[in-house]
Write a sequence for this structure.
């Protein structure tokens, strides 16, 4: 048994006395907690599953190094940037983006994510010099809430289109997620996404391969995949684009303007995650190691992932839930999970199994996830008691949401304009985020003051993977 560090109902356990076998088992638990949502992002976007696992592990270790190895956080794939990836891949064949395949367009989106990561680094430096309050006044809930709501709503057609390829398979996943999250106990409640994926996958195999009522699951790629291989390829990284930046700078700028503004929501989300982890382990992480260090760790982890063609990283609420469940807060357990993710990244056969998941399976799970993303945005507004009786708050929210949805669902799907000889485009989410930040900065009557103890949200109560994700 582990040694209790504190007595009473809030007693926690010291992993140093567990021994490596039990610590390894706890590490596997953390790996499974993050797994479902982390691999769902590359499945939705077309990014490499192996690269995603590799840089989730590498990013987590980098985060731990930069935060003095005292923050028990795992960094997995961020859902907040999905809309940016989809906006760029949706530009295929349009003026200025001709003759580009999906891999090329994803690489441009990764450039935008890398710039967003550098904004994290810049904000980290600003927090260090000026203090957290001065930075966060630009990102109150009335700004970030509509952005998060918009992310979920913009993504919702993708979920419906994928689920519609085979509704019985999709509905099996939706039902499993709902049952696991509402009625599950212990570990079942922590990994509803993984349970939903496995249930839907099993139904897909029975429905298509056994009963022959729907599309069969193709396992040929699994048989052909080697057991050991590199997790990413050179053409999937941003380096080929940057090597010819002079010829591609119009596209690069458009990609940055489309994707980078999404960090307005994720930075505020990061603050909430760090607060929730601190609340779970009963430590003020804003003071030690400091918000500037956690932002720096998150930003550099995302930058490294993006340049090598992996999704943006973010601290995972699922793993905070595991901390609350196990009451073992030793960050070394998280680092074991990160090491396991890195090992799996070098197994192409494992990645091939993941790619066999039917579109309906992914659509069914994302059907819930995208709705929950918007619900988190609503929760953000409610918990911070945003006063919509005030015209300024109503206007900021209304204009931000209309810009986001109106532009995203229009035929053009972006606002294009020319600066000199450059043809640039802004997605609906980018315009909505920028309008929210601008209106909040210039309109009088601000009624929200950030404190280092906010937001007081328990990630153990959050839904698996939908937040920053």
């Amino acid at each position: 048994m582990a040694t209790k560090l504190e007595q009473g109902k809030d007693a926690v356990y010291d992993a140093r006395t567990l021994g490596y076998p039990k610590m390894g088992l706890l590490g596997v638990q953390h790996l499974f907690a993050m797994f479902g949502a982390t691999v769902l992002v590359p499945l939705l976007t077309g990014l490499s599953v192996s690269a995603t696992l590799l840089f989730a592990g590498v990013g987590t270790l980098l985060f731990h190094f930069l935060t003095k190895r005292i923050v028990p956080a795992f960094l997995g794939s961020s859902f907040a940037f999905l809309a940016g990836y989809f906006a760029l891949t949706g530009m295929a064949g349009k003026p200025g983006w001709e003759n580009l395949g999906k891999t090329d367009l994803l690489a441009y989106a990764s450039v935008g994510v890398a710039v967003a990561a550098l904004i994290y680094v810049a904000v980290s430096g600003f927090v260090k010099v000026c203090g957290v309050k001065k930075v966060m006044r630009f990102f109150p809930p009335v700004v970030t809430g509509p952005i998060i709501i918009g992310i979920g709503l913009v993504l919702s057609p993708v979920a419906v289109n994928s689920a519609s390829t085979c509704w019985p398979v999709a509905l099996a996943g939706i039902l499993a997620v709902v049952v696991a999250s509402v009625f599950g106990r212990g570990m079942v409640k922590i990994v509803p996404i993984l349970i939903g994926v496995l249930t839907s996958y099993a139904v897909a195999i029975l429905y298509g391969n056994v009963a022959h009522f729907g599309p069969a699951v193709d396992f040929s790629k699994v048989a052909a995949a080697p057991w050991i291989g590199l997790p990413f390829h050179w053409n999937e990284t941003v380096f080929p684009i940057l090597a010819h930046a002079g010829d591609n700078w119009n596209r690069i700028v458009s990609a940055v303007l489309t994707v980078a503004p999404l960090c307005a929501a994720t930075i505020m989300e990061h603050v909430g995650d760090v607060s929730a982890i601190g609340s779970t382990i009963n430590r003020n992480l804003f003071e030690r190691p400091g918000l500037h260090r956690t932002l720096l760790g998150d930003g550099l982890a995302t930058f490294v992932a993006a340049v090598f063609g992996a999704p943006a990283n973010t601290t995972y609420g699922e793993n905070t839930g595991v901390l609350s469940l196990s009451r073992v807060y030793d960050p070394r357990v998280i680092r074991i999970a990160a090491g396991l993710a890195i090992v799996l990244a070098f197994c192409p056969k494992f990645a091939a199994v993941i790619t066999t998941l039917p579109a309906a399976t992914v659509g069914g799970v994302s059907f819930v996830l995208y709705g929950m993303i918007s619900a988190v945005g609503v929760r953000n507004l409610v918990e911070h008691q945003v006063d919509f009786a005030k015209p300024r708050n109503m206007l900021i929210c209304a204009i931000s949401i209309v810009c986001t949805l109106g532009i995203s669902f229009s035929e053009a799907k972006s606002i294009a304009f020319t600066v000199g000889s450059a043809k640039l485009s802004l997605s609906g989410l980018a315009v909505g985020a920028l309008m929210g930040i601008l209106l909040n900065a210039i309109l009088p009557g601000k009624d929200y003051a950030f404190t280092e103890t906010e937001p007081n949200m328990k990630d153990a109560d959050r839904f698996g993977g939908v937040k920053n994700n």
